[in-house]
Amino acid sequence: MPRTIKHFSLDRIDGTELRVVADTDGGVLRIIEVEEEVVRALLAHEHAHPLAECPTTRASRTLKLELSAGNLHAILGDRADDILRVLNSVGKKLCLDSPREVFANDLAISSGFGDALLHINKRNVANAAAGMTWRKQVQRALEGEVAEKRLTEAAANLLMLVGDVQGYLELAIEIAPFYRAGKAEGGREIESILQEEVLPKLRPGVSAAYFALRERYEALEMEMSASALVQWGNGVCSVVGDLLASEGAQIEHRLYD
Predict the structure, then answer these.
(1) Which residue among 63, 140, 191, 219 sits deepest, i.e. has the most Cβ atoms within 10 Å of its Cβ?
(2) Which positions ≥6 away from 183 have C-beta within 8 Å?
(3) pLDDT for 14-23, tens place per residue?
């Protein structure tokens, strides 16, 4: 049965169009307020990037990260090249892009957008929890390949771990700024959901790696030279490298200016 639109709102915030369409009156104002706050937060984050420029962010643009395949081909066969591309992409986000994202979120939270960013990150964690259903499907598919002798158990475990690394470790970049900006209660609120609904369901070691990365993002300083940032970045790479090594993958990295 067709529904009648009882509410329509069209607003423009800093050039971004915000539409709210509803078929009930109840709760519409709350939805408008929440979504407008979220849009403002996203815009604040983007506007914060140029304002958050500093020696560290400038140094991050000069660094390069290279990963070696190590023993990936021995474990994964013809899937190794694709997995190495995934790890290169993740490594650049966790190591090279992260200072810019962390400092931009620092500034946005300090400028009064902490509640909106908290809302966004709680939504992101809720989406991550919902993604557990898809993860189970992937796991079952890989177990089927193992049963059919088309994949080893070690390869299946490593593929699941790479998926977890790609899907969940980046959350540390988003949550660390709450601790840095003196809003630790917000960080703890998000992480309590993460620890209850997501991290225990991932491969062993992912939870410890998440917290190790969050601590490294907390320790970022705005006046780091390229050489200091290389040292810091090597610590980030080591967290991920040690995690992959727990599933037998021996991958070396080179981070340089």
Answers:
(1) 191
(2) 109, 114, 118
(3) 444 444 444 4
